[in-house]
Write a structure and sequence with these properties.
The protein is α+β, with helices and mostly antiparallel strands. It is built from seven helices and five strands; from the N terminus they run βαβαββαααβαα.
Length: 152
């Protein structure tokens, strides 16, 4: 599997996709760091393909951090997404638990610091990937591949 940030999306067809708040500078920095994890692609919530994906998955466009894992056929949202990302990043289990347990406080602080004008949706579970949403993952990946490369 390709580990480079500038990978060819066709080479990572089962790669998880992270939907994050692209208007939040802190979230964007975290997304750049997560791109360095093997196979994780990141796409801003504001990208055009995100709305149709969220509508197919949730019947709405919840403003939330969402991790889509096509290989597992699962969608992690809110606290569950944060905990799963911490686990995949190799942090000790206690860190993932702290992230999950303090997700709302972390989101409030980040939202205040970034000047975000909306609150995250109250969805925090792991869901089966809806087949209609699964059909839209390639569009999410295309938006991820268009994201700016991290600057050093």
């Amino acid at each position: 599997m390709v580990q480079s940030v500038a990978c060819n999306m066709s080479e990572t067809t089962d790669a998880p996709v992270l939907i994050f708040d692209g208007d939040c500078p802190y979230c964007s920095i975290a997304a750049v760091a997560l791109r360095r994890l093997e196979g994780v692609e990141a796409v801003p919530w504001e990208s055009d393909p995100v709305g149709p994906f969220l509508e197919a998955q949730f019947g709405d466009r919840p403003f939330a951090m969402v991790l889509v894992d096509p290989r597992e056929r699962r969608v992690y949202a809110g606290r569950s997404a944060a905990e799963e990302l911490a686990t995949r990043a190799g942090t000790p289990g206690i860190v993932g638990g702290l992230v999950r347990d303090n997700y709302d406080r972390i989101a409030d602080v980040v939202g205040t610091l970034s000047g975000r004008g909306r609150d995250p949706a109250d969805i925090h579970d792991t869901y089966p990937l809806d087949p209609r949403a699964g059909d839209l993952i390639d569009e999410l990946r295309a938006a991820a591949s268009d994201a700016p490369a991290p600057t050093v």
